[in-house]
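Structure first, sequence second, as always.
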């Protein structure tokens, strides 16, 4: 989000002034930026890992130019190892940002969790390889996620509060989720319409995936169904997909 009280000129001056490498930007690009009429800034990726001491964020600053075109600058904000002073570098493309992170963090970045990719950012195919090399974990492939930075801790609290199953996640999980700052909700395959005790009953399965402040991910699996004695809607929440699907099978006696 942009500061509504900051002019585009002031924003650009502040961005270039704090960047250690602003002199590396192409002269032609800087000249075009001098005609900027409006701007918008957003957090693009974030990686916070207290366990390893790695902290970095990527921000995208987009400018509307007087000729009707637009350009983006990519700002890398990070803490160098052993130094608590925040540093800023700015680049003309995501690919250059990838190279910078590789230079700054080396092999350590390959073992780090995936960053948060915020909604509204579609990746051109020619940038995917560079971004993957920089940010993708060396762990087995996982679902592609686009997290929304929102009131995620409150969302997690509401999910747990509406769970009616006795084996729902307990206080340790609830405590971890108090540090959630981004989340994504997806409907999983496997929902069904069936008979339970001779009545129609519907089942839906949702994954609520959260990102915690230390950069780790944690999911809650929510089963919504009407396989209740009076046919009312009921929610159950589990810590794993396997447990949620087992509960669905237990609830649904298909005839």
């Amino acid at each position: 989000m942009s500061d509504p009280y900051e002019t585009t000129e002031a924003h650009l001056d502040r961005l270039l002034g704090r960047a250690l490498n602003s002199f590396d930007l192409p002269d032609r690009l800087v000249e075009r930026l001098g005609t900027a009429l409006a701007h918008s800034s957003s957090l693009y990726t974030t990686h916070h890992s207290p366990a390893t001491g790695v902290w970095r964020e990527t921000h995208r600053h987009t400018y509307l130019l007087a000729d009707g075109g637009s350009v983006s600058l990519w700002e890398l904000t990070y803490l160098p190892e052993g130094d608590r002073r925040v540093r800023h570098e700015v680049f003309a493309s995501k690919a250059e940002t990838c190279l910078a992170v590789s230079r700054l963090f080396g092999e350590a970045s390959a073992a780090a969790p995936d960053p948060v990719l915020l909604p509204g950012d579609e990746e051109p195919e020619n940038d995917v390889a560079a971004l993957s090399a920089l940010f993708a974990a060396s762990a087995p492939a996982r679902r592609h996620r686009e997290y929304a930075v929102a009131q995620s801790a409150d969302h997690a609290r509401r999910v747990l509060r509406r769970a009616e199953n006795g084996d729902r996640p307990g206080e340790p999980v609830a405590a971890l989720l108090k540090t959630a700052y981004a989340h994504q909700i997806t409907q999983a395959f496997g929902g069904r319409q069936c008979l339970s005790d001779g009545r129609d009953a519907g089942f839906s399965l949702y994954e609520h995936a959260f990102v915690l402040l230390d950069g780790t991910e944690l999911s809650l699996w929510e089963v919504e169904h009407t396989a209740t004695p009076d046919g009312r809607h009921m929610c159950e929440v589990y810590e794993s997909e396997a447990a949620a699907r087992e509960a669905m099978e237990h609830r649904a006696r298909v005839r």
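Margin note: Confidence is low (pLDDT under 50) at residues 107-142, 190-197.
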